[in-house]
Automatic annotation (TrEMBL):
Segments forming domain Rhodanese: 19-102
Official protein name in the record: Rhodanese domain-containing protein
PROSITE patterns linked: RHODANESE_3 (PS50206)
InterPro entries the UniProt entry points to: GlpE_sulfurtransferase, Rhodanese-like_dom, Rhodanese-like_dom_sf
Pfam families (UniProt xref): Rhodanese
Length: 102
């Protein structure tokens, strides 16, 4: 019996390389954190609202450090959605950002 299932994850570098393909990115940080700087194509859905979210395509979940995004991925995958955690979160992001400085 497995107590810990490994969540599908990618690095911020892998996500950055995928940007030309326009992947669906959800940032689960709070709105004030999101406005402080986020990936230009990311959509902000705070963690506390992720349970009501429905999606049919693969989605990449990011937060500040990777902890909230793991929780969001667990929630979405339990509902049968194809969700992938972005390891290291915005703290590891080296690509372009929209909004304030991180």
């Amino acid at each position: 019996m497995f107590f810990f299932k490994k969540l599908p994850s990618i690095t911020t570098k892998e996500l950055e390389e995928m940007l030309p393909k326009k992947p669906m990115i959800i940032d689960v940080r709070e709105p004030q954190e999101f406005s402080g700087g986020h990936i230009p194509t990311a959509k902000n859905i705070p963690l506390k609202k992720i349970n009501s979210y429905q999606i049919k395509e693969p989605v990449y979940i990011i937060c500040q450090s990777g902890m909230r995004s793991k929780q969001a991925v667990k929630t979405l995958r339990a509902k049968g959605m194809d969700a992938v955690n972005v390891k290291g979160g915005m703290m590891s992001w080296a690509g372009k950002v929209r909004g304030g400085k991180l």
